[in-house]
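Predict the structure of Restriction endonuclease subunit S.
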Amino acid sequence: TLVQHDLKDHAYAGYIIRVRLHNEYINARYINMVMKSNLIREQIEGPIRTTTGVKNINSNELMGLLVPLPPKNEQGIIIKKINEIDTTLSNLKVSIQSAQQTQVHLADALTDAAIN
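Done. Here is the predicted structure for Restriction endonuclease subunit S.
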């Protein structure tokens, strides 16, 4: 989770790792997106063996992750492009749902016409 302001007088659960970034070089939104990517998820989940189904990572393992880190201006460009793609995907999902509803209505209309 990305928190962009100081949370004073808050308690953190023992399993939460707080990471502070060098804002001069790193865009927090970029790191948030990268941490959700398959590239990082595979690094985290690949070596984990669990019997409970709970997957944890400690601070030493976190420091060992290979994170692609382009210059900060490129990080901003990547964020913008990913947001554009996410918007396009959301619009496509809405269009597909609308087309599926239309298909159902047309099938119902054809069935009604054939019966009557």
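Residues 75 and 95 are 30 Å apart (CA to CA).
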